[in-house]
Design goal:
60s Ribosomal Protein L30, Chain: A
């Protein structure tokens, strides 16, 4: 054997061993990828498990949309709408046929859903603007009352039904058992009439008369019903004389049916003898935060 062949055989195993040791695993990235996917799946499972739906807000949204798009508020499109499109491609209703039944599919007409959401957003915006307008009007009335010494007899608040201006009648609007306006209350009614005429939205105005539970029996007023109603109509006539449109006004008398204080005390009865001027809301109170 030649010296050259011996050297070649001696070096061959070493070369094979070096080749095996230098081999790289090109599939190790799969381990990292699978670990990442596992962690993401676990994360989404945790997020799903802790998520919850605000049931009250969802029910309120559902109620508002149902009222806004009920047949009473949506204009009829006529038979031409039903006849449009292909007769071979019937659509399915978004609303179940009967209450409690399940909806199996959703009509793929996206514009109707978008229109509903836009209408609901517009209703929210209108309600918010109306709320701000009523609050501003209430502040102006209360500021006037404080500036002219009527703070204890006049109070304007924004309630669920609208702006309520409460005026205690004693020594301001009416004398005891009478329905003729007193001179002391005329400047107040003038200011209220001026502010009502600034209302560009033309809210309906209801003037309500209330009494205490002390019976009255006179030729002019056989009971507190006649007294409370006559006082309300007297204020309505005065507001009309100061430019408030007649078609916005109405009057109601409630006698002693809705007291705001106890009739067992003189102070409580004085609070119950009142006139309330109410600007009724045009837009529903969607927030439902007022009493």
């Amino acid at each position: 054997m030649s010296e050259t062949g011996a050297k070649a055989r001696a070096q061959r195993p070493k070369s094979r061993h070096r080749h095996v040791g230098e081999h790289e695993n090109h599939e190790r990235w799969l381990l990292t990828y699978s670990d990442m996917i596992t962690l993401l799946m676990a994360l989404f499972m945790v997020l799903f498990s802790i998520s919850s739906v605000n049931t009250s807000k969802f029910k309120y949204l559902q109620k508002s949309l149902r009222e806004a798009f009920s047949p009473a508020h949506v204009l009829s499109g006529g038979s031409s709408i039903l006849q449009s499109g292909s007769a071979a491609t019937p659509t399915r209703s978004l609303v179940p046929a009967t209450e409690g039944s399940a909806v199996h599919s959703i009509t793929p007409t996206a514009p109707s859903t978008v229109a509903q959401m836009l209408a609901f957003k517009a209703a929210l915006s209108a309600a918010q603007l109306e709320q701000e307008s009523l609050l501003a009007l209430a502040r102006r009335i209360n500021n006037y009352a404080r500036a002219h010494g009527f703070a204890n007899q006049v109070n304007a608040v924004v309630a669920r039904r609208g702006l309520v201006i409460t005026v205690l009648t004693d020594k301001l609007l009416f004398a005891s058992g009478e329905a003729s306006l007193q001179p002391a209350g005329l400047p107040l009614l003038d200011e209220i009439a001026r502010l009502l005429n600034l209302d560009t939205e033309r809210h309906p105005i209801v003037v309500e008369g209330y009494t205490d539970n002390v019976p009255i029996d006179t030729v002019e007023f056989p009971s507190n019903w006649e007294l409370s109603t006559d006082r309300a109509t007297t204020v309505v006539r005065y507001l009309i004389g100061r430019g408030v449109p007649e078609d916005r006004l109405s009057a109601a008398g409630y006698a002693d049916q809705f007291p705001v204080a106890s009739n067992a005390t003189a102070a409580g009865r004085a609070k119950n003898r009142r006139v309330e001027i109410v600007l009724e809301r045009i837009n529903p109170d969607l927030a439902q935060t007022q009493p």
